[in-house]
């Protein structure tokens, strides 16, 4: 595929992911907190990346769709900068313990959700993609 078209596909995915992120932050932050909204979009993004990785590996989804969904959509949906900003905000207001819990939850649950996304598609054959 032409790299210019691939770039447009990724940009479209990023646009849509960013829109979904805005909506999640608006609706979740309104009721709970900014940090919870970031945790939620990070976990959803990790799960989607797990699913798409497995589908591309199985050749059920093309690499172009994989780029659209992972680099594009999930790239726009999730962000490390908001994660880091949330940690700084928690520490600035004296909630260092909560900041540590937030870091651990994002990291451990994020890795778990990538695994779950792959397992959701591949099931018992999950080990085959790492051979």
In short:
It holds the Pfam family CRCB. With 131 residues, the chain is mainly α. Helix content is 82%, strand content 0%.
Give an overview of the whole structure.
The protein has five helices and no strands. With 131 residues, it is mainly alpha-helical. The protein has one domain. The longest helix has 29 residues, at 3-31. The radius of gyration is 16 Å and the shape is globular. The mean pLDDT is 88.
* Whole-number tally of structural domains: 1
**Helix- and strand-based class?**
mainly alpha
The SSE string, one letter per element, is HHHHH
- Which stretches are poorly predicted, pLDDT < 50 over at least 5 residues? none
Annotation, overall tally of beta strands: 0
Largest sheet report: none
Number of helices: 5
- Average pLDDT, rounded to a whole number, is 88
Estimate percent helicity: over 70%
Shape, per Cα inertia axes? globular
Distance linking N and C termini: 28 Å
């Amino acid at each position: 595929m032409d790299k210019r078209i691939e770039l447009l596909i990724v940009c479209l995915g990023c646009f849509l992911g960013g829109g979904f992120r805005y909506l999640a932050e608006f609706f979740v932050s309104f009721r709970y907190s900014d940090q919870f909204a970031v945790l939620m979009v990070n976990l959803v993004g990790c799960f989607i990346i797990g699913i798409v990785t497995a589908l591309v590996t199985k050749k059920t989804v093309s690499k172009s769709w994989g780029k659209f969904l992972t680099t594009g959509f999930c790239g726009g949906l999730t962000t490390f900068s908001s994660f880091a900003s949330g940690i700084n905000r928690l520490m600035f207001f004296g909630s260092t313990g909560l900041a540590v819990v937030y870091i651990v939850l994002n990291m451990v649950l994020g890795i778990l959700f990538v695994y779950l996304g792959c397992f959701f598609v591949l099931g018992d054959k999950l080990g085959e993609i790492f051979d």
